[in-house]
Every structure is written in structure tokens, then in C-alpha cells.
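Example (one chain per record):
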Amino acid sequence: MRLPVTVTFHPETETPLSLASRLARAMAYPSMTSLLGDTMARAVFRGEEDAVKLLSSWSGVAADQLRRFAVPVSEQAGEWRLGDAVFRKEMRVAGRFRFCPRCLVEDIENGAGRPQGRPYERAAWLTTAVTSCTRHRELLVEADDGAPMSDVGLFVSEGCHLRCDPGSPVAGSEIEVDAYIEGRIAGNRTRSFIDRQEVHVLLMLFHFVGWLVHNRLPDFRIGGVTASSMGIRAVGFNIVKGGKDEIEAVVKAAIDLHRPAALTITEFFGPMVRHLRRNVKAPSYAEAIELFQTIVERHVPVGPGDRFVTTVEQRQVHSVRSAGLEYSMDRLRVRKLLEERGVIEPSRLSDRQVYFSVSDADNVLGGAARSMTTTEMAEALQTHEDRVRDLIERGMLPVSENGVKGDRPFYRVEVSEFERFRQRLFGRSPVASSDLVTLAQACRRKSLSIDDILEMVVEGRLNRVAYADGSRTMDSILVDVAELPVSVGDWGGADDYLSMTEVKNVLATTDATVSALVSNGVLPIEVRTNPRTRRPQAFVHRSTVDWFLDSHLSLYGIARGWRRNIARMKGELDKNGMKPVFEASGKIATYYRKKELSEASLLPPNA
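Predicted structure:
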């Protein structure tokens, strides 16, 4: 039955126990327990059915509205619910009444009904997760020991609220966090990443993401403000509300800046890792754990068997160290190969701190790991190592790696290329061999070297080739002397290749320019035997030079075509975004692509 005196209920923020306390004061009861009794008061606080129905009948407020901000007995250990939000037990206010003095004073001054029944308790005051009054932008305060804790009417009637000074002002960034938590308590929720998480999980994320920024990204800015000038919780909130992509971008920035080794990744992320591991089986943590596990696997060189929160199953990133172990390669060689291919930059970082993707590792190191040294190839062909070097320098065996060890060059050839070479050398259908001779015998009868004849076999210039046995070695090859020229100079096709001097004359340029064109890969060279000197020498095919002349024009040629000063012409080209084939200086000519000049209407007439 409805009481003769009622009070105005505030369904958006008020707790059921607050309404009971105000009814008691309005009815002139000395305290709430005088009206309800201790047992019934606890039942109202927990939102139990019978207690809520009784309070509803007394106040005229619907039971569902009263139950909204009750604190029911939790089904999960260590958790409790307030409104639509779930908190950890340590986020519960205990022992003292927590409130905003200005709110209670305003209630008395501006509320409706009897003055003693006007002040009410807000649901957000029940959790330490909310630190401030978002209306007055001040910290919430705790009453002194001995002040009534759960009876707001008695608390105000005894003047306890007047004995507490208002809380300190709070920064706007912190107010924003508290307003969000209040909204979650009230049930404001969407399908975004931040709203999908339980509040206690979010508070953990706010703290740990903020900690990461404060400790790993001191210069990070949020909305033009340095993150170090904001509280950890506010920093984390501003990042987490941006969703998964924003979180990953921040974590990646921290990783890129510090390059933590795989074995130090737990320390790098601080206490977050231990907390996530403790909750690895909790459903409410599943999405957060998956997010951070995925980020780490995507950006840190952890591999199968390593543990971040859960155990890694598949590697996505390598370090120089891990790649060296996986591909059984020396770490210096790993670095050199990756630097040559532009996958990594030269640096002083340790082998554990240089990262690159698994796909890049496989593209660059996979073939290298399956490559052969000149010693291994010589053993397979049953010849000496210098012969293999000669074959490489003649261009018959394309190299995957080269360099200098001591005072001698060294080479590596991929197994697939070596097998392709062997197929060209030994894959012929054998012919009658009664009148054929060995390579050594052929060389004695002609002015040729064994390498010359091998090149003819590989290039298919000899029709009659046989093998003395099935060993697939150099000594087993037999050729027809009648098919061989007297010397290399007698073989057709020499006019198709130009020496470096001839290239210089055709281009009407300098030796330095030709060297630059070759070193920058614009004019590819082929190492062939000079018919006169019988030594390997670099040549450029005539068709390559013709292609270069057809598709490129020098800065001098452009300026002459437009009848302009070279310096002014260069300035105009730069202004229009024209990039030379390569940067040149000194006596090296600068070349541009005719196609790009034409598209920019800068190609001279009749060029």
C-alpha cells in the first residue's frame, strides 16, 4: 500500500536504497532501518523480488525502475553488477559514504517535496571506477569514519555533507572517462569495440594502454596535447575508444620505436601480460586477449612455441636471429642479403631487434638457403673450382649472391639454376660417338678453351654432343671437332656486342657516364670472351644500346632541342616533377625517359 507521503524518484541515476532512505526521512522515521529493518534494507540493496515489490507499493515507483541500479548477488566470483556495467570487486565502495557535496546541497535547494526527503544517492557513487562528479567536475569525496554509509537521508540530516569540503577540480579528459562509465552503468551501449567489452575489462585496457604510452611513447600526442600531461586512464580511454585499429597503431608505434626482442616482450608490455594470462579462460577477456595476441604476432618476431598471452602457433615476423636459425644461415649473411634486396636498412640494432616479414624472409633467404657454393658445384661436376668461377663470369650460371672473401670473389648459385645449367649441358639426346672427342682433345686441335666449348654446348650451337658415360661430369662430354670454329673470333654473332669503348662512342658520352649506366642497371652487361685477348670481358648487346637511345634523352639533348640554357632546363624539369633515371654528378650525363617527358609536354620536337 502506498505511503501517505512520497518523494520524487530519479530513475536515470538513483539507487533503490536511496529512495527507501528518503521515504523514511519524509515519513519522519529516524533512519531507514527504522522503516525497513536491516534484513529488508540489504534485500532492497540487492534488488530482491519481495523487497523491491514492497518498496514499489510504498512509493508508487515501478519495480523495474527500482531494480535498475540495485546490486544483485554476483554469479561470477570477484565480479559485481551495477546497472548495465560489470565491475571487479575491488571497484566497490566499502566502509564510507562516497558523494559529491555540491550535488546534495543542490538537491536540498532545488528539489521537490519535503526538504528532508530531497537529497538522493547517485548510482555512480557506489563504484570507485567513477572518480568525479561529472556535473560539477570535481572529485567525489568520502565521509569521515562514523558517518552513516547507506542512508543518504540520515547522512544529510546529521549535516555530514557540510563537514566535507568539495573535491578538487578534475581535468576534462578524466571527466570524459567518468561520463563514459556513468553512461555504461545507465545502459548506453552500441556495437563498437569499446562498448562490447565489460566495464572492468575496459578499465584494465585504459590503464595498460595508457601505461604503454606513458612508458614507451613519451612524445605521443592526443588532440594536440602531449599524452604525458594527461592521466594514464584518460590516455588509454582516448586510444581504446578509437577501436582495434587505433590500439594496433599505437602498439605498433611503440614496438617500432623500441624494437623489443621476442624474449623481452613480456617485460615490454608490463603488468598487462600477467593480468591477461590470469584471465585467459574468462569469456569477458576473450576479445581483448585475441586483439593483443594478434598485434604481437603481427609485429614482433615471436614464433611457434613462444608465449605472449597464449602460445604462438605460426610465425609472421622474423628477426635476423630467428631467420638465421630457421634457414641455417650465418646472421651476417642474412643481414647482407636483406640489405641488398632493400628489405631492411643498415643499422646498429642487434640481430634480435631487426624485424622483417616471413614472406620477405622466404623470398630472399629461401632461395639463398637452397643455393650452392662454387666448391659444391665443382664437386657435383667433378671439375675444379676455378672452372666454375669462369662459367659464372661468362654468364652461364646466374648468381644469387656474390662478394669478396679475402682477395678472391665468391659466388652462390641457386640449386634450380644449377640444375637448369646441368640440363642444358647434359640433357642432349646422345648421338653416335665413334668419331667424337673429349673436350681436352678438341681444345688441342682448335684454338679454343674448354670454357669456350662448354659455352657452345650450353647455348645449343653444337648439334653433335654425346657422353662417354652416365656420370654427368665435364670429362664425359664428347663433341664433333668438325663443328667447332678454329677460334672464338671465327664464330658468328660477335658484331652484336659492343665493348664499353664502343658504347661510349655510340652514345657520344664519357667513360664515367657509361660506367654509371652499367652500375645503375640501365645497361645490362654480358661477360663474354674477347676473341682477341681470349679473356672474359664485359659487353653490352647492340639491341640494348638501340633501346636506350630510343627511350632516353640526355639533359644536354633536351636543352639543345628547346634551345635553352642547361641550368634553366634542369630547373624547369625539376619544377614539373621530372626525375632522372639516376642522380648524376660531375662528368656523368643526366638522362630522362622520353615517355615521361612526352607526357609532361617537355620532349623537344624531333627528339
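Caption: The longest strand covers residues 408-414.
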